[in-house]
Fold this sequence. Notes:
The protein is built from 7 helices and 29 strands. By secondary structure, the chain is mainly beta. It folds into 3 domains: 4-158, Cathepsin D, subunit A, domain 1 (Beta Barrel), CATH 2.40.70.10; 162-305, Cathepsin D, subunit A, domain 1 (Beta Barrel); 320-439, Pdz3 Domain, CATH 2.30.42. The strands form 4 sheets. A 6-stranded mixed barrel has the order 4-5-10-6-9-8.
Amino acid sequence: MFGLLICANPLVFSQGSFRLPDGDKRDKISFKLVNNLVVIPVEVNGTTLSFLLDTGVKSTIIFSLEKQDSVMLRNTEPINLRGLGNGGVLKGLKSENNFLKIGEAVSEDHTIYVIFESSLNLSSRMGIPINGIVGLDFFKNFIVKTNYRSKKIKFYKPENYSYRECRKCDVFDLHFYKDKPYIDFVVGLNNATKEETVTLLLDSGSSDAVWLFDPKGFLTEAPKNYFEDFLGLGLSGHIYGRRSRLKKVIAGDFELEDVNVAFPNKEAIDSLGLYIERDGSLGGDFLKRFTVTMDYPNKKVMLRRNGNFNDPFHYNMSGLTLEHDGVEVYKENSVQTSINQRAKNSVSGFANRVNSSTFNSFLRTEILLVPRYVVAEIRKNSIADKSGILIGDEILEINGKPAHEYKLYNLSALFSSEEGKKIDLKIKRNQRIFDVRFKLEKVL
Length: 444
């Protein structure tokens, strides 16, 4: 989840709008879905980068350019920024008059904010390059349909789009505060009969299902219905809080049960001057259960239930958070087989006379550069913590396979998969290699 406070002159939102070429009514692009987040290609002044498409931000932000040193940014000036997290003010740049392109849509006078903060590295946590975030500037002039099943985004000029009747759909009103979209839903806790209406920021840049800011009436000590956890990275640092489950979330005709909810610690959000009516956020783990049509011009959103709708809500049962920490040399041995010269000279009879002397076998060693995965966070009292794993440990193998054969987001899914699943890790710590075995344990 990302919030941003610009400590400078107010933003001018007449600039930075995307538009389709004259005569084009719509366009379509593909995206990657990583940890419930939508990642799209964005061309910035001729260089293609990977951005999160985030309904919860109103500014276009770049925060990772380590592999894109040739990106040109125009008309820059120093600026201070503040966002969600426990850190303070961040140093950055404001860059104006940039050219951005998403699909065939272009923005020719675009303002970008650049953050120089090494700890804000989403690429290392997600396992793929993430260079920045784009939100309001893309959504405000289009009707944008995100299909989480097909991983396609269609966007339309508002005058060329009409809503069709749909039995699996419901349309909700949006209300805006400082150009961010909010929606009203009903929630209820496991052991409570009371239901409560909450105002949530529609935030596709949060990988969780629901965040709520006030735990009163939701969390209990006897029985204890929550656990402390690392919630994610904000623009001003790490965000910690508590995780629990909501008995249900009601959205019009839709009702989802046992929905994951997180309560960020108070200090992570105190400095942002949040919308006074806001109770929390609605994120990607909820939205991916629908095809989501965002209609900023008419202040509406349409949700169409998809095949993910009845999937259970999972959380990380291992307590491990891994990150990509550079690359390392990996030696891979394989047995190669060649036909001996004598057999090559007897091609005519080769098909009928194959025996062991026909082939020569030899051991071949390949030197590869592969991702290095290390432990970035460990939840206190989790099964990983009890197994003796420490922050900084390098993961060499998972369930008998070299760690680099997994995508980082696949490991996140593995650690959230099912109670009782066996996890075998080969770990390296200070040149010592050892094995750790545990089973995933439910906390809630």
